[in-house]
Amino acid sequence: MQRLYRKRIVLGVGGGIAAYKSAELVRRLRDQGAEVRVVMTQGGREFITPLTLQALSGHPVHMDLLDPAAEAAMGHIELAKWADLILIAPATADLMARLAQGIANDLLTTVVLATDAPVALAPAMNQAMWRDEATQANSQLLIARGLHMFGPASGSQACGDVGLGRMLEADDLAQLAADCFKRESLTGRHVLITAGPTQENIDPVRYITNHSSGKMGFALAEAAVEAGAKVTLVTGPVHLPTPDRVNRIDVVSARDMLAACEAAMPCDLLIAAAAVADYRPEVVAQHKLKKDPSTGDGMLLQMVRNPDILATLAQREDRPFSVGFAAETEKLLDYAARKLKDKNLDLIVANDVANPTIGFNSEENAITIIDRDLQQNSLAQTSKGKIARQLIAFIAERLNNQA
Ligand code: C5P
């Protein structure tokens, strides 16, 4: 089985003698189905030629931060966003120190700083350098920040010493890279995500809508693809580009959204992140409504309930694992728990839209996930991209572990 099927890996190659093993590592990662792009530091290039890694990865090697031609082809931010995982092998003591400090003075360190993807390091250095207090402190700091540390192994070293500091072998590194995706794997799953607002027409020129930007739903679609899922994203009107490898279906009203979701069934997992209008005007006027002097300063608009998309799909016989959102401005957890029950959900994600830094249209989010046992798990405030990855990992673990 290709454990890294369609995974996008940025392989960072630092300046250590173990860089000769990176060539083999590119092969092993590709054997597992990964697409690999190599970023080399200046030091890395002293030990192995970019041409070797270009030939093995099938792509030009990325080297310079300030090279306009390279930036035009695939810039550092693009590369940071492209990656599902950044694996640095070999990671030298110097690279670890720079990463620990957040220094971004070359392409590789800049990409690491700019990415939302998990980062793994395969340290490789002389045993005394590895044991040094500074290196150990940097290693602990990076682990505490969530970076994965692969190795180092113990044994004889190129310099003649014996001890901890050898880089792990290519096979081991490829397996560990695959393990990074294991827990959160949605490989082979069909995930249906609703996103954005809906628009409910009043007449040909007016409609009722809400402040939803769609950012959370789109970030979830991207994270689900990275976790290996086949993703259908049904979205109301938003101004967002379609994430790579996502099947996007644009809709306008709640009833359109329900029809599109029903057509996309069956799915294994439904995440309803759309802010669906609860009501729509009972009749949509054929012509633009005119001011009516007979009603004075007022006007009455008769509204009717929209179907509940999430509840409808969660009621079906082929019901998917169902995750809803509860965006509230008060009594957040109470309302969320009630919705979980009323809509027959597996999980509900509560988010406090009264807080302007995490509400509608903001770049960040902070959420509490509530399950059927009313257990709560909170994810601290961070970018919607990071929250989406954490949420997808959480959901995938539940989905994969259900009876
Ligand atoms: O009941 P409320 O609108 O607060 O529920 C929010 C959750 O239900 C969200 O996950 C939202 O996407 C979903 N929903 C829906 N169809 C509706 C209303 C809400 O799918 N008509």
Automatic annotation (TrEMBL):
Enzyme Commission number(s) from the entry: 4.1.1.36, 6.3.2.5
Gene name of the encoded protein: coaC
Phosphopantothenoylcysteine decarboxylase: region residues: 1-190
UniProt binding sites for CTP: D278, K288, P307, D308, I309, L310, F325, K339, K343
Pathway the protein acts in: Cofactor biosynthesis; coenzyme A biosynthesis; CoA from (R)-pantothenate: step 3/5; Cofactor biosynthesis; coenzyme A biosynthesis; CoA from (R)-pantothenate: step 2/5
Keyword entries, A-Z: Decarboxylase, Flavoprotein, FMN, Ligase, Lyase, Magnesium, Metal-binding, Multifunctional enzyme
Superkingdom: Bacteria
Residues annotated as domain DNA/pantothenate metabolism flavoprotein C-terminal: 186-397
Record's cofactor remark: Binds 1 FMN per subunit.
Region (Phosphopantothenate--cysteine ligase): 191-403
Classification via Pfam families: DFP, Flavoprotein
Stored PANTHER family: HOMO-OLIGOMERIC FLAVIN CONTAINING CYS DECARBOXYLASE FAMILY (PTHR14359), PHOSPHOPANTOTHENOYLCYSTEINE DECARBOXYLASE (PTHR14359:SF6)
Role according to the record: Catalyzes two steps in the biosynthesis of coenzyme A. In the first step cysteine is conjugated to 4'-phosphopantothenate to form 4-phosphopantothenoylcysteine, in the latter compound is decarboxylated to form 4'-phosphopantotheine. Catalyzes two sequential steps in the biosynthesis of coenzyme A. In the first step cysteine is conjugated to 4'-phosphopantothenate to form 4-phosphopantothenoylcysteine. In the second step the latter compound is decarboxylated to form 4'-phosphopantotheine.
Domain Flavoprotein: 7-175
GO molecular function term, any single one: metal ion binding
Active site positions, chain numbering: C159 (proton donor)
Family per record: In the N-terminal section; belongs to the HFCD (homo-oligomeric flavin containing Cys decarboxylase) superfamily. In the C-terminal section; belongs to the PPC synthetase family.
One GO process term, biological-process aspect: pantothenate catabolic process
Cofactor: FMN; Mg(2+)
Lineage: Bacteria, Pseudomonadati, Pseudomonadota, Gammaproteobacteria, Pseudomonadales
Catalyzed reactions: (R)-4'-phosphopantothenate + L-cysteine + CTP = N-[(R)-4-phosphopantothenoyl]-L-cysteine + CMP + diphosphate + H(+); N-[(R)-4-phosphopantothenoyl]-L-cysteine + H(+) = (R)-4'-phosphopantetheine + CO2
GO cellular component, one term: phosphopantothenoylcysteine decarboxylase complex
Protein name as annotated: Coenzyme A biosynthesis bifunctional protein CoaBC
